[in-house]
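Every protein is a chain of amino acids, and every chain bends into a shape of its own. Below is the pair of lines this work produces for a single protein:
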Amino acid sequence: MNDFQEIADRVEIEALRGDFTDAAMMRDRARLAALFTPDGVLRMPNVPVELIGREEIRTGGERLQSQWDFFVQNSHPGTIRIDGDTATGRTYIQEIARLLDGRSGLNFAIYHDTYRRTPEGWKFAERVYEVRYVDTTPLGGSAPGPDAAHDSGKAGDAVRAPGAGEADASATGAADDFAAPASAERLDRAIAALRANGFTAELLDDAAAARARIKDLIPEGAGVFTGASETLRLSGVAEDIEAGDRYQAIRPRVLKMDRATESDQIRRLAAAPDVFVASVAAITETGSLVIASASGSQLPASAGGAARAIWVVGAQKVVPDLSTALRRVEEHSLPLETARAQAIYGQPSAVNRLLVLNAEPQPGRGTVLLLREAIGF
């Protein structure tokens, strides 16, 4: 390889590393995933996270970014060593971030990289993120914008070092911990209570397991209505159902219909599908499901209109009792959903309707897939 080729390779690898930071800052997860080889790996052992392949990198990144209030990453070039069609290198990182639950911090890290030459140019074969320094002192600043004001004292109360006091806090159901996954013991209690109340309840490791399980649970050709849900979007469940031809997906069909002239047909399609797939705002350790809605359009299917219902639920949604569940809806879920609705529709959300499912009287109708990881609101 001549000197000019090596110079060109170095320039392209530097551009690749710059594109990664830009895609992360712009929250362009599809572009970020495309910077990896098809079998590329993004590892973050300190989190811990391991994402293999472009699809996992995209959906995993979306799960992470859904928790941000703001995020800033600065990258500084390190070494590059080229060996034919492969190369290794390091990138030095400084980041500041605040999560939607109030936690914030500053960290310094290193990306240990392996690059591979492909017909599309140089790509990441592997990025391993090594944290060297973390400071969880509350950040005093905020992201500009109408929704960016933060009470610094309040935010400070919410911030703690990762894992500090987690067991005690999760047991109290305090507002500051509505984003924290429940302990294994609490998840087991919720599963047992759901089963005692007539639900089919399964405890799965993560969103990938839920995606695979749903394919087992829903027969090909079934009419499936997917509820509007960050959990379904971030997990990839919504895309699996709505984008393929395995099922008769109702939501894409409804979105193309005229709400003024076809409202009755829309209502019937949403209320009584073969299968309804959604999430919930909370699950109590006594085995109840709590669902909040602004319009109520998705509640009939959950309540009994659908022949079968499947709810995919993150571990952070398990709470001790109904009163804590209602507080989670008002103090945690509603502000996050309002921010999402404001960005998409230009108006806030509201808890206009609440549905509490205390039991499932029809054996086999209602299935809860409870995950060990946190996902969604």
